[in-house]
Write a structure and sequence with these properties.
Elements (H helix, E strand, L loop, with lengths): L1 H6 E12 L2 E12 L3 E5 L6 H8 L7 E6 L2 E2 L4 H5 L2 E4 L11 H11 L7 H11 L15 H13 L5 E5 L7 H17 L1 E5 L3 H7 L2 E6 L2 E7 H6 L4 H9 L4
Parallel strand pairs: 3-8, 3-9, 6-7, 7-8
Antiparallel strand pairs: 1-2, 1-4, 4-5, 9-10
């Protein structure tokens, strides 16, 4: 039991977020183990974005608790966030900077050791396929390469938990394939939460899926479990999120 707990990189218990009388998120539980890729699904308005904002410390929950690598995110935000990497749906890029300038800035913000920065920058550019883009202005890059820069800023400090919000939105099929391959590679050493509307993406890269609907978690199942049941993810998603009203 102690080993299981030590293996957890993220634990969110009974998360709630209220806006007046409206419960945007109600009693959501998420646990993530090292080396696991979790797909977070839900229709528009399900509460996914609110949940991710709470998990990354950008929004305080009304009630509930969040621990990152055993560190309470609410009590010790700076320590907990050091273990987090986050790519929001709109990457936080400075288009007027070159890729190298931007990644250097991000490395310093994450307090990467100064002597290690050149090695870290080379490694993250290699992982994200940006080796020959260092001197390019971010604003001149294609959407696919801008997404790669967004992922690079999320992983530059080698975080234990990586949260990606719609990382392949707007990409062409080849770009999507490359980003999905990168996500699978990240899931080998870190824990990854992937939020997406693309069900095939979850099927191809995730170990487990959780589905939200109307602020509540309505499914938590491994992809292997769904396959053993002979159930298609699309069928389950439609059944659990379809409104008859």
């Amino acid at each position: 039991m102690a080993d299981e707990k030590a293996d957890l990189t993220l634990s969110a218990q009974d998360l709630c977020r209220n806006y007046g009388d409206h419960a945007a998120v109600h009693k959501v539980n998420i646990q993530l183990k090292r080396g696991e890729v979790l797909g977070l699904l839900g229709p528009n308005g399900a509460g996914k974005t609110t949940t991710m904002r709470m998990l990354t410390g950008n929004l305080a929950p009304s009630t509930g608790s969040i621990e990152i690598c055993g560190i309470d995110l609410l009590d010790k935000p700076q320590q907990a966030k050091a273990h987090l990497g986050f790519l929001p749906e709109i990457p936080p890029l400075y288009r007027e900077l070159t890729v190298d300038e931007y990644l250097l800035l991000v490395a310093r913000l994450h307090r990467v050791d100064r002597q290690a920065i050149p090695t870290v920058l080379n490694k993250v550019k290699q992982r994200c396929g940006l080796e020959d883009r260092g001197k390019h202005l971010i604003g001149t890059l294609s959407k696919g390469f801008q997404q790669r820069v967004g992922i690079a800023q999320a992983i530059i400090h080698n975080p234990d938990v990586i949260i990606l919000d719609e990382p392949t939105v707007g990409l062409d099929p080849n770009q999507m394939r490359e980003i999905r391959k990168l996500i699978r590679e990240l899931g080998v050493s870190s824990s990854v939460i992937l939020s997406t509307h693309i069900l095939s993406e979850v099927e191809s890269v995730c170990d487990r899926v959780q589905i939200m609907h109307k602020g509540k978690m309505v499914l938590d199942e491994t992809m292997a479990g769904l396959q053993q049941q002979g159930t298609h993810l699309e069928t389950v998603f439609t059944e659990l999120t379809h409104d008859n009203e």
